[in-house]
Amino acid sequence: MPSNEMKPPIVLQNNGVINPYSFSQAVAVGAYSAMAKIVEEGIPTQDVIDTVKASGLRGRGGAGFPTGLKWSFTAKDEQVYIICNADEGEPGTFKDRMILEGDPHRLIEGMMIAGYAVGATKGYIYIRGEYGLSIERMQYAIDKARAHGVLGDRIFESDFSFDIEIKKGAGAYVCGEETSLIESIEGKRGYPRLKPPYPGAVGLWSKPTVVNNVETLANVPPILLNGVDWFRSYGTEKCPGTKVYSILGHVKKPGLAEAEMGISLKQIIDQYGGGIENDKKFKGALVGGAAGAFVCPDCLDKPMDFDGLQELSAVLGSGAILVFNEDASIVEMLDGILAFFKHESCGQCAPCRGGTLALKSIMGRIRKGNGQPGDLDRMVEVATTMQAMSLCPLGQSVMLPITSALRHFRGEFEALIK
Amino acid sequence: MKELLERYPATTEYMLDILHDIQDAEPKNYLKPEALHAVAEYLSVPLSDVVSTATFYTMYSLKPRGKHIIRFCESPPCQLVGAESLLMILSEYLNVEVGETTEDGEFTLETASCLGVCGVAPAMMIDMEVHGNLTRERIIDAIEAVRGSDA
């Protein structure tokens, strides 16, 4: 369990410190020195993968899959692709935007190292279409990196060549799912693919492809530069490093905070969010976005990391924390979440298409005070079917907000059912 | 049209980019039937492929819209701090329902699942500009500042 002492941030180290349009300022704070070290010392690709494996870095997009393992599963081929998933759409999440807009060269370097490790020469950054400033600043940084010869052919006079192209999304939450994202880059509807095969074997244009989140890739250069022990001095044994949280809702200072993995929800709310506003009482929080879980005051002292939250039947997800005071209505919140899922279901598979409609309709009548006996069990039944039968995590995850809301706040719902 | 298409190589990888650019160049912010035909021809794919993509993503429209697109954020963080009421106020002020365009053709009112600017919730975008910490007054000021200007 990490101490109360605040260590310097890893991911947001340069945010607000450097001018994101300045290549020289980025280099002055160490940009591209990890990549230069790899090339100059001739570190073999397998050693890069082994270092990331040993660091214990886990995917920061939500699922928490070990990054080094993902890289090692990538098939060898003449053409391999790296995709950076910057389709940040989870409600309450804007950490990736801060990296894209605040330290773009860090992300470029992270992608280069990932590309070097898995034998990719081409990378794509898929940025959601609504993030106009992120797209502009990333493109500016890519152009600068090319002009300075750190992107392109024979980087640092080595045999390694790598280039990056930005792909702009067009508004679809489901495209944050890696196979939907791949379909979208190919110019199609963002329908998720059946897995297996996984993208590591059959990905973009049927070639082996690694899809990593922005925050994950931003952790890679400092790991290669400072070493495994340094990275493991942050966080917990099973979840080393930091997490960038967004602390929102009824707190004094809503915003982003990078904290060590494993600190408690109470610490995050008090130390980083400034505590609950207006001296109100803490009622609960929605952790992990719309596809996340409601937690209650009993969870305040539990460690926040991928495993700690799993024990509470919750998830860390994207790191979004929406805090509620005593006045908040969990019924209204769940209704909003189910409206979100109904809107964002892509419609490809029947359990999710029909299930999200049914859930919103049941929830809508409960909220209006017209709930029928058995409605709450009916919602759990629909969500359970969706969890078992849906093709992708979108439909599978609706279960979580529903069951967690009912576990902790069932009385609020029952009060509205005749 | 030809010039817009030829900014990109003629492969489906650039389908989304091409649709974005064509729509952005159209004053009424939508994809005309003849534009969809032109994209299909340029990329050498059936028209159904282009329509399939164009109808999947919320940022594209096949119907004419206003000069300015308002995307009002409906995410839980915005909802928690009063977005629902503010959306009703905006809808009343513009005299349109969500999805409709004002009579003068200036604004189309849309909603978004999350704009990713939760630090300043409640929030909306007018075209690519973010407006946060919304109140009734700020919404009206933002609308009037944009009214009549170019998209």
Label this structure with key terms.
heterodimer; A: 418 residues; alpha/beta; Rossmann fold; Ubiquitin-like (UB roll); de novo design (two linked rop proteins); 3 domains; 5-stranded mixed sheet; 4-stranded parallel sheet; 17 helices; 43% helix; B: 151 residues; alpha+beta; Glutaredoxin; 4-stranded mixed sheet
Explain this structure to me?
The complex is a heterodimer of chains A (418) and B (151). Chain A has three domains: 23-232, NADH-ubiquinone oxidoreductase 51kDa subunit (Rossmann fold); 242-325, Ubiquitin-like (UB roll) (Roll), CATH 3.10.20; 330-414, de novo design (two linked rop proteins) (Up-down Bundle), CATH 1.20.1440. Chain A has 17 helices and nine strands. Chain A has helices at 23-28, 33-40, 45-55, 67-72, 95-102, 104-118, 132-147, 178-185, 214-226, 228-232, 265-272, 306-311, 330-344, 350-367, 375-389, 393-396, 399-414; strands at residues 81-86, 122-127, 163-168, 209-213, 242-249, 255-260, 282-287, 293-295, 320-325. Chain A has a five-stranded mixed β-sheet with strand order 6-5-9-7-8. A four-stranded parallel β-sheet of chain A has the order 3-2-1-4, with helices on both faces. Chain A starts with 22 loop residues before the first helix and ends with a helix. In chain A, strand 2 (122-127), helix 7 and strand 3 form a beta-alpha-beta unit. Chain B has two domains: 2-54; 68-146, Glutaredoxin. Helix content of chain B is 41%, strand content 12%. Chain B is built from seven helices and four strands. In chain B, a hairpin with a 2-residue loop joins strand 3 and strand 4. The longest helix of chain B is centred in the middle third of the chain and has 12 residues, at 83-94. Classes of the chains: A alpha/beta (418), B alpha+beta (151). Chain A binds chain B through residues 88-94, 97, 128-132, 167-173, 184-190, 246, 248-250, 254-256, 286, 290, 320, 322, 324, 328, 332-333, 336-337, 339-340, 343-344, 346, and chain B through 11-17, 19-20, 43, 49, 52-53, 56-60, 71, 74-77, 79-81, 112-119, 121, 125, 128.
